[in-house]
Each structure stands twice: as C-alpha cells, then as structure tokens.
User: Fold these one by one.
Assistant:
Number 1:
Amino acid sequence: MVLLWLFLIGSKDYHDRLGYVIHTCPDCEVRGVFTVVQERKKATLYLVPTFQYSKKQFMHCPTCGEVFEVASEIKKELKRKLISREELVDKIKSGKIEKLLKKGKKGGKTTQLKCCNCGGFVLKGMNYCPDCGVKQK
C-alpha cells in the first residue's frame, strides 16, 4: 500500500538559468561572474506535475563552487543587474568584463580561457565553468 502511495504523489525539481551577475563571493572574497539559477519544485500526481510549491533562487560562485540562496529582499536588485549569456560573451570579447571584475579592487589583467568541457568562456582563476558547471583543470 505504501509503495502504491509513492507512485501516486511525488515531486519534481526544475532548474532554470536566469543569467549572470558580477559579484564578490562572501565565502572566498573573490569577485567573479556568478551564475544565477532558479529552482522550482512541483508536486506530481501519477508522475504529472500539478502545482508549484517552492521557488528559490541561487547564486553559484565560479571560484570556490559555493552556492548561496538569494534573499527575497535583494531579488529585485539582482534581476536588474542580471546579464544574459550573449551579453556576457560580448563583454568578455570586448574586454569590458575586466573593468567590471576590477571594480572596487586593485588587480592585474584577467585572462579569458575556454572551458575544457563545453568550450564556453572561463576567466582565469575560475574553478568552474559558468555555463556547464564542470570543474576546470
């Protein structure tokens, strides 16, 4: 009977990449391009999603790999600062990303590399790709 109940009711998680934001990690204190992801949870009935019961946003640090939940108080400000993948690629190609990453700190020139898995743009010092999340060598 319990086994039958498990097939009738369950939940399913959905993860949507909302974009990217330049931010300083509170854990490793490195300024970088954070990936912002939204997680939605839906209840299922007979494996069919019925209604959403949870919605959270997370920021992923590319340097240390830490994931932080976005507080509801800063979601509007974060939405205003989000940039798309295309905008990020344009900023990297034009060299504008270096200026944004240096903002508020003294530092040397950043170098762009390619991801060993997907070929996306990865800045020097990043441990994880902001596109596919694979650890870099």
Number 2:
Amino acid sequence: MNQLQHELRNVLVIDDDEDIGFALKRIIGGCGYDVAVAVSWTEALAQLSTHVVDVVFCDLRFPGNISGEEILDLLQLNFPEIKVVLMSCAMPDAISSSLLKRGASFCLQKPFFKAECQEVMLLLTEQQYLKQDLKAA
C-alpha cells in the first residue's frame, strides 16, 4: 500500500452550539487529531482559507440563512478534497441516504462518542489509501 501523500489529521467542526463544538473538539482531539471549531459558515470559511482541513464535521441545522446541506454543497464546490461528515440529533435513514448521495462521506446521529469518531476517521483514512492505490495502478 502506498504511503499517504497527506494524512487526514486536521478536522474542522462546524456547529452553532459552542458547547457541542467544545465537546466534539475534546472527543475528536482525544482520537489524536488537530481540531478547530467554527460556530458559523463565515467562521468556517475563514478557517478553510487559512488552514489545511482534511475532514469537516458539520451540523445540519443552523439558525439563519444556511443549512448543513448548503454547507455540504459549498464545500464540494470550493474544497472538493475535504471529506464531510454531517451530524444531527435527528438523522433518519432517508435523510442520511439522501445526504450520502449528495456527497457526504458519513452521517452521524448525535450524541456520538469517541468510538464512533475513531471508526469514521479510520474508514476515511482507508478510503484515502484506496483512492491513492487506484490512482497509482
């Protein structure tokens, strides 16, 4: 297997609830990743334009003009290399399936814990290896 050209190390959490952002920073950071938190799309865009981000964990519901689905679309358009994990307190199978078809890497229902974060990050890393192996073949 080829060595990763760029490891998935840098995570951005986008959630308007600062307490949830803080908790996710501790959970994901506890898995060994560098984690930044943004409470709005404006804040997230500032992070994305100044820092390397490999994975975004994004809430689906935001007050105001933008939704997690719209953030997913914007990330795919402007930062297609970033893996997107969408999360919500309500994540029925139909919504999850729709979001995955739309381009999300994973969908998680809150609350989730360290084990789920580790599993998601491991699977994203394996996908990265597979893509690189296919390109090298």
Number 3:
Amino acid sequence: MSLPAIYFVRLEGRNKALHVGRLAEIYFNRGHRILIVVANEEMATSLDRYLWAFKKESFLPHVIHNSNEHCTEAIVVSTVVCNTNKADVLICVSPCPPSFFKDFQFIYDFAETYDSQLADTARERFRLYRQHGFDPQMEPSATNSRSEINTDDRPE
C-alpha cells in the first residue's frame, strides 16, 4: 500500500470549519468516506451544527461518533482517533499521530498562519510527518469564503 497524500490547508483567518465543510462535500460527492477528528465534544458539537447548515442548497449527511465501534456513516465527526467508518479521507481539525495515517488515501491538516503559535505548531507537524516518511504538501492560501481548495488533480 502506498503512502497517503498529506495536504496542509493554509488558513489566514479563523475559517477552518468552512474548509472542513468544503473538503467533506468534495470527497463525499466523489463517493469517499470521510473521518473528521476533533479535540473534544464541544468542537464536535460546534462542527456538527456548522455542517448541518453548511449550504442551504445541499445536504451533507454526517454523524458524531465517539466510540471505537464500527459506524456505517460516510462522514463521521469524532473525538476518537479510530477509523470506525473505514474512511479513506482524514480531516484533522485537531492533530492526529502519524501512526494513524496508514489506512487513509488523503489526509488534510491545517496551517493557521493568522496566529504565530498555531503556525509554529503546524510547522512542527509538517516536519514530524516528513520524519515519518510522508511528503506533506501545502495548499494555496485560503483567505476568504470564495477561495477554493484544489482537489482537481487528485485521483478519484
């Protein structure tokens, strides 16, 4: 099995949920299963609310699932670092250990450049991923609600 593709989305503002929603929508519409890992219940609930109202004209089905038991939903928001829905796309709202990455095809992390401490932490994760043999790539800057994440050149 080949190594997963890891992409860092550069955030110049506090709009991570917007990009999580866009990524989930893109990969869900392509038939992928998605796991979104968050740090705690509060973040899970907040993201859950956001995803239900993400777009007025479309529906993004998802569930909060915080256990190690199997889940059949295509999009799972979880505080547990466990691939319970057999996802091939991992969106790290909160950091995940590189040892967890092996089961995924695509992994997304975020570089919050609007905050120097968060940016330093993202740089550390970028280096850590390289130390574990991965080749993380930076996405273009995601500065406003109209900026799009480029997934066109990625395999289905």
